What does this fold into?
Amino acid sequence: MNEGHSYPGRLIVVEGIDGSGKSTQIELLENYLRLKGFGVLRNAWNSSQEISPIIRKAKKKQILTPYAFSLLHAADFSYRYTHEIIPALNAGKVVLSDRYIYTSIARDCARGIPREWLMNNFRFAIRPDLTFFFRVDPSMAFERITQMRDIKYYEAGMDMELSPNPRESYILFQSRVLSEYEGLAKELGFFTLDGSRPVEETQKVIRRAVNPVIQ
Ligand code: ADP
It folds into this structure.
């Protein structure tokens, strides 16, 4: 991965397991930055019009091996990186990325793929100016998600056959993901947030950390 970058824009990333509060906070941050007059591009994981439908179809059939899962998400990311993220950074925008390469590194590592292989695969991607890591207990994340919808097969890591019970599988799998995130956070200096704190309180901390980066 490249150290630093020379684009006029800024890249701010939120990472953490599903249900940790990333989207809620990034939306509030986007409103704040727009009110301050910044050009903003918000982008989300697994969202390209071109590749994401293929991933969706494969997930539905539950046919993905860990490497196929990883490579397809990497393809989606690299597409968005080239066509959305870099052009926006070149145009001087603040890019708010709801998940970045660390999602793949943490999650696919938890699926047994060597970390070095993953790091190498994403070497083309620049290092963000600021990465927030939302730390939340998997059982809390599970409760938050299931209040809105059912837990999904791959989200629960059911492909890993850790447990036939979706809740148990989710907690076992996401605990692995969380511990990979914790390693990355330490190594790469992520800004760690307690995802169990109230929304407004966390948003204040985020804005305080973002202000010097966008000066
Ligand atoms: P993520 O993007 O990390 O999956 P979301 O922001 O979508 O998480 O939040 C998941 C759910 O938890 C939503 O229903 C959201 O309203 C709720 N939520 C988010 N942040 C908090 C918080 N700090 N405290 C309580 N509930 C929260």
User: Anything to note?
Assistant: Residues 10-214 form a domain with the Rossmann fold fold (CATH 3.40.50.300). The radius of gyration is 17 Å. The chain has eight helices and five strands. The chain has one domain: 10-214.
